[in-house]
Amino acid sequence: MDFFAQQARVRGSSRRLVILFVLAVIAIVVAIDAVVWFALGQHPAPGEPPASNLNLLLGSSVIVLAGIGLSSLFRIMSLSGGGKSVAESMGATVVPPDTSDPALRRLRNVIEEVAIAAGVPVPDIYLMADEPGINAFAAGYSASDAAVCVTQGCLDNLTRDELQGVIAHEFSHVLNGDMRLNIRLMGLLFGILVLAVVGRRVIWFGGGRSNRRGGGQVWMIGLALIVVGYIGYFFGRLIQAAVARSRESLADASAVQFTRQADGIAGALKKIAILSEGSQLQAANKQEVAHMLFGEAGSFNALFATHPPLLERIRALEPGFKEADLARMAAGMQREAASPPASAPTAASGVPGLSLPPVLTGVLAGGVAAAAPAFQRAAAVQQAMPASLNDAVQQPESALAVMLALALSPAAELQPAQRRIVADAFGDDVQRAVQAQASAVAALAPIARLPLVSLAFPALRQLPDGRQQTLVRTLDDLVKVDGRVDINEYCLARLLRIQLSEARAPRSAPVDGVKKLPAARDSVILVCTVVAAAGCSDEAGARRAWLFAMQQAFPGEAIEWVPPPAAWQASFERALDDLDGLSPMAKELVIQALLRAVHADGQISVEEAELLRVICASLHCPLPL
Fold first, then answer.
1. Maximum distance among all alpha carbons in the chain?
2. Of 170, 288, 588, 608, catalytic
3. CB contact at 8 A, 472 and 504
4. Helix, strand or coil for residue 507?
5. Which end of the chain is more exposed for a tag (fewer CB within 10 A), N or C?
6. How far apart (Å, rounded) are the C-alpha atoms in residues 429 and 400?
7. Is 529 helix (H, G, I), strand (E, B) or coil?
């Protein structure tokens, strides 16, 4: 399953959704206008212009459109906090980063692994502790303000592989731009439903008093608002369900691509089919988020189903699966429940039961094992993360100190100047905290530097806006203290600047662009040039890698190689901003071209890996799997 192809499909779904909702709103306006005209319209004498009727209908249309629009806007604005707002509206509670509960610790580890593998910040993590069904959802406007929420049933009933499958499914919604659409769906449905609420109020306060003049007409209008509001909501739910079903099938496939195995997510779906609780939720507002969930919020209804039937989803993952296999699986689960629990395998890190293949042994020595799946590479990085740093990035102030320590130079002659910069920006206490973290950060495997930023992100988001902006400015000052900025320093500052700025204003996060690749030709050439030069120690090797990229991006064109300028950062920034305006399919061509350059010499350097992570973050797409 292709991320970029799915992005294109989501764009198509969004366009169809907008058209259908526009038609639904037009139909609602016409229906209300007809009732208003019948109840209040003036019938002119023959030959007289119906001006009063036109004004009445125009006023009715404006009021209905304003009511739907303002109500939708109100609901969307109430969710402007992104994923956190949606999770808390469902009664979920945040999972603390320092939890000692083994099940919650396992959940955090899995989510952190997937975030590192995808190259996105670790999202806020929530738990619906009173929900025994197996379900989950991801919400937010972008990856930088996302929240992933799971039920207690996921923790109680799923193995680690199954939990990985569910989380990978939810991350696919984060990566594919589904979350912004989901929040808008919630707002539009709320706006339509408000008509029915207004209708009830009209009947109660106006039309119900039949002794008042015009009470009958007002009652008729109130009744029409109720009927049309609920009918509109009915068809809105149908539209919502149809769009959601298509995205859920693609998310299942993306989860398999992510984890490189189908057993995990298929096992979770089978347990939903077997257990009496299934995926049902008890929350009163469960229908509002039904299109976001991993499974159906209530009993399956083919008309309003937001997900394909369970057996259909399982067979898409395991083509030979038969319904009778569920009975055998249920019997096996009963036998396991009756037997004494086996002790869980342990591991050296916070990743319980993880066994890494030998191909990953070189990852932490400074290189990247290109043959290993991204999920396993992320697990290797997380497994080797020092416990002291893991603990430090869980709290806002200590996470800030770690980020500043990442920017410190190993050159002793530069450190006094850098200490002064930190002290001037944050004070002596923070400067001492940075020095206290410096040795642990210096010993960190190079490939783990930017994943550490992802792990620190939830804590950094809790810093006041002013402190976040000071952090970004200070990082820029620290990396420029020697008059030059190397690739590692640039990537650290750029990544934090992107993620923190989007987290501060989640609704303004960029949406998919529409430009074709030829429109950004110069930007593609420059970005590929910088990546090719970063991965090779000699110009001949860089030119060869760059030619591979050009053959992928612009086949058949004769393009002249020009080495990157010494001060490449400013033009590189402009090029990345330009490329973010490309369409999803054009972005895919850019990533494929970059991969050709990176793999030209058969290995991936740390500099190439960090550049890829920053480029993908700038283009708002996941790291290549």
1. 97
2. 170
3. no
4. helix
5. C
6. 12
7. helix
